[in-house]
Amino acid sequence: MNLDEAQLLYPFGDTLPTIGATLEVAPGVRWLRMPLPFALDHINLWLLRDRDEAGREGWAIVDCGIASDATRTAWEQVFANELQGLPVLRVIVTHMHPDHIGLAHWLTERFGVRLWISATDFNAARLASQSTTGFGGDDAAAFMASHGLADPEAVEKVRRRSNYYASMVPQVPVRFRRLMDGAELRIGDHDWRCHAGYGHAPEHIALHSRALGVLISGDMVLPRISTNVSVIDLEPEADPLPLYLDSIARLEALPADTLVLPSHGKPFRGLHARIGQLAAHHDERFADLRAACAREPQTAASLLPVLFRRPLDLHQTTFAMGESIAHLNALWHRGELRRTRGDDGVYRFSPA
Fold first, then answer.
1. Which residues, 6 or more positions from 93, have their beta carbon under 8 angstroms from its beta carbon?
2. Nearest one of 308, 287, 169, 291 to 228, comparing CA atoms
3. 254 phi-psi bin (left φ>0, alpha ψ -120 to 50, beta other)
């Protein structure tokens, strides 16, 4: 446990739900985990006791896992053993990334229920599941090359990942119920307030129950790792990092003893401390990039060893490139760095 993590409290210790089983973390709130085929090898999902407009008892699912045989098998175990004979009444998705929305279509079709999600992320998911833009293919490869990714093998692998998103999100439901910032959802016996967050996804929705003292934070606040905030080829001049930092700062208005249910890692208390840690982390990264750019002009690719002091596989490198560009774009938009494009077509950043 590092010094930052020592400031957090894990009320369930090292206890984890086994795949296909659940653990109750608050009254009517159950925690389950699904496997992911990446270095980040799991996602946390949630079951909330619910009741529909006709008074029928059941469950709301929050987030879905990627579309894979392993995830479907785990869900089948949950359906058989964890639902207490009650139906699923709705599927809620925090945002459009594959590990969150991947099986939303399968789940909503299976139970004949509606998907609840922000309008922005619903439409982004519909587009991404039918397109290669932003997640692989020629445009993504050219974008990363323009920011200094020079390894021909890596660039070619990005180019070949033309079905990357669709392989994990083959279909998105055709209809949805819209979640918006400030909206109140009645789920079972409790009200849950929507908190929109930006930077990580187009319009991420976290859910807070004041009565239960619980925040389903999705990917906005994670206990051990920093949330990925990336620039992709769809919006090459984007400035998402200030949006993300502003979003998590607004969550400081929630009570300090809130139980945070993150999408990765373990449930924890210490929301205010963790928000401060994440802000400090990015301040440190900004300082590192300023110093590196002051020594000589830098590309996003040349700064990967500065930002990430460990070996990266291709999956991690694509996220790392997006995050490096996000940090550089933030300093560029602030007027602290100057961006120039060389005769080789590569962007380099130096002090303004």
1. 62, 63, 64, 100, 101, 104, 115, 116, 117, 121
2. 308
3. beta
Number of domains in the chain: 1
Strand partners, 287: none
Report pTM. 0.96
Confirm if 168 and 66 have CB atoms less than 8 A apart: yes
Reported as a single tens digit per residue, the pLDDT across 156-172 is: 988 888 888 999 999 99
In the chain, what percentage of residues exceed pLDDT 70? 99
pLDDT digits (tens, 9 = 90+) for 63-78: 999 999 999 999 999 9
CA distances from residue 308 to 192, 225, 311, 312, 324 in whole angstroms, order as listed: 36, 12, 8, 8, 9
Three-class SS state of 283 = helix
Question: Token pair for residue 196?
Answer: 């929109």
CA separation for the pair 18, 97 (Å, rounded):
23
Per-residue DSSP letters for 89-111? EEEE-S-SSHHHHTTHHHHHHHH
- Nearest 10 degrees: CA dihedral of 62, 269, 278, 315? -40
- Any domain includes 62: yes
Asked if residue 11 is part of any domain, the answer here is: yes
Tell me whether residue 332 is in a domain: no
**Distance (Å, rounded) from C-alpha 144 to C-alpha 301?**
8
Q: Which domain holds residue 24?
A: 5-269
Sheet with strand 204-209: strands edge to edge? 184-187, 190-197, 204-209, 214-218, 259-262, 268-269
